[in-house]
Design a protein that fits this description.
The protein is α/β, with parallel strands linked by helices and 213 residues long. It contains 7 helices and 9 strands, in the order αααβββαββααββββα. The strands form 4 sheets. It has a 3-stranded parallel β-sheet with strand order 1-4-6, covered by helices on one side. It has a two-stranded antiparallel sheet with strand order 2-3. Strands 5-7 form a two-stranded antiparallel sheet. It starts with a helix and ends in a 12-residue tail after the last helix.
Length: 213
């Protein structure tokens, strides 16, 4: 029940309206009058309006029920309750099948999927990113399984082609397949993961799965 509540607050909050025209029942039951209501016209306008789904997937969360302190006013962070995350490639297959089974299997692009390393590594350490290769390889394998399950997948975009400024973490972590010298951005080097993608993945197709860099 905790996991279902969390996924409806994090995921169903956005997808339920564009597929079914309303927020998830769990959200309505939990939030009561704090949750705005769609008018009939708004519901009709938004229902079925999705052309494709762009899904960002990095990790899976473990959800547990956690009672909110009575001294803490309810808010967007306390409503879903507690969750911890972990890199877990099979979770990508699981969420794609969840979408297929619960949201009419829309055309879906994996718009972000990636693996971070610390931003203070030496150049040699940054270029030898075997962990990133294993992470992308494992996720692509699970993506292939999801396609074989019947999930309507059109493409996969790894995050990211180059090291860059990350929205919430600045330069402290790096997701890039290519290393960038942030004091001289014209200085860029291929990491082992970029070489792997170039030689092992680009051009490979499994039904409708492909990688775009």
């Amino acid at each position: 029940m905790a996991a279902r509540r969390a996924i409806d607050f994090i995921f169903g909050w956005f997808l339920d309206p564009v597929v079914y025209g309303d927020y998830p029942k769990i959200m309505k039951d939990t939030l009561g009058e704090r949750l705005p209501r769609f008018t009939l016209l708004e519901s009709q306008l938004v229902k079925g309006s999705i052309d494709f789904l762009g899904l960002n997937y990095y990790f899976t969360q473990y959800g547990t029920d956690s009672l909110r302190s009575i001294s803490t006013p309810p808010n967007i962070q306390t409503d879903p309750r507690d969750a911890n995350f972990v890199y877990y490639p099979p979770g990508l297959r699981q969420i794609l099948n969840y979408i297929k089974d619960n949201y009419t299997n829309p055309l879906t692009y994996i718009t972000e999927n990636g693996f971070s390393t610390f931003g203070n590594l030496t150049l040699a350490e940054a270029l030898a990113d075997q962990g990133r290769i294993e992470n992308h390889c494992s996720h692509l394998a699970c993506l292939k399984c999801a396609i074989e399950d019947g999930c309507n997948i059109a493409g996969n975009f790894p995050w990211s082609s180059m090291d860059n400024y990350e929205f919430s973490s600045g330069y402290t972590i790096c997701f890039g397949l290519n290393w960038v010298n942030f004091t001289n951005p014209a200085d860029r080097r291929e990491k082992d993961s970029a070489k792997w993608v170039k030689h092992k993945v680009i051009g490979y197709k499994a039904t409708m799965c492909y990688v775009v860099i």
